[in-house]
Amino acid sequence: MKKIGITTESAADLTEELIEKYNIGIVKFKVDLSKFKDINGSIFNKMRVAEEKGMDSTIKTSQPSLKDYLEMFKKKLEEFEEIIHVAISSKVTGAYNSAMQAKKFLGKDGERVHVLDSKKGSGAQALLILKALEDIEQGLSVKEIKEKIEKRAKNSFLIFMYDKPKWVMASGRCPKIAQVGLQKLKDLKMGVVMREKDGVLKLMTIKRNVKDLTEPLFEEFKKITKDTKTKISVIIAHGDNQEEVEKLKEKLGELKNVKVLYSTLLDVVLGAHAGPGALLLNFIYE
């Protein structure tokens, strides 16, 4: 039995290769795709095709149940002496609370499960996990790893832009008045750069004459990291927008202290709200 294992949710945007390599336990969010049963491809292709056909193109998701966490924790406790669960931000979903309840249901074995609110999502959450895996390989204790995750969270970032505001508006997570404003900005060829702050997504800045998503994100990335001398690790997540991904990779490649670890399709949890074409730039530095 190995000493320490990592578990998380599908929202962390880890690749299948990493999940398999490090035996990471994944709890999946529930997704209702029944109305898309005749549409092939990724969730983003389903949304695009549904929109073109005049169908309801929104996707409904719900958090994992207490039972989902309980089953996963029990399974991983057979493989590891202790588990660190790096949960998606508790301010975005109730998944963290479900994980905490499952820990209580484990009784004495619950002492071997350590649930942390990452206050992140997507690749920012994944970056905290990858750093924790490095700590495990170096032989750090659970206490030391937990402390490092909490410190690193302050230097991990998620910034993103959507292609169309309709997906954000359809999510129901922004006020009606804000929804009207988002569409007006789009009509005026203005783009909104969003960011994660204190565990929730907030408006970061508004850009004029936006021709693509790459340039505004890259500009904000440089502002945040301008005084950073250490290595910056990056994960790019996207709503089926490979063209913009390649452009962003090229720009980031011009910077000496930046390493793009990988790019991946955005998980449906955030993808359902960001929508097709969205581009997320996740990064961390120490």
How is this structure best described in words?
It is a single chain. It contains eleven helices and twelve strands. By secondary structure, the protein is an alpha/beta fold. It folds into two domains: 2-30 and 62-154, Rossmann fold (3-Layer(aba) Sandwich); 156-285, Hypothetical Protein Tm841, Chain: A,domain 3 (2-Layer Sandwich). The strands form three sheets. A six-stranded mixed β-sheet has the order 9-8-7-12-10-11, sandwiched between helices. Strand 1 (2-9), helix 1 and strand 2 form a beta-alpha-beta unit. Helix 3 packs across helix 4 (95-105), helix 5 (122-137) packs antiparallel against helix 6 (142-152) and helix 9 (214-225) runs parallel beside helix 10 (242-252). It is globular, with a radius of gyration of 19 Å. The protein starts with a strand and ends with a strand. The model has no long low-confidence stretch (mean pLDDT 91).
For the record, the count of structural domains works out to 2
Helix content: 25-40%
Identify low-pLDDT runs: none
Shape: globular
User: What is the CATH architecture assignment of the largest domain?
Assistant: 2-Layer Sandwich
Q: Would you tell me the structural class of the helices and strands?
A: alpha/beta
| Biggest sheet record | 6 strands, mixed
Q: What is the first-to-last residue Cα distance?
A: 31 Å
Tell me the fraction of residues in β-strands, as a range.
Answer: 25-35%
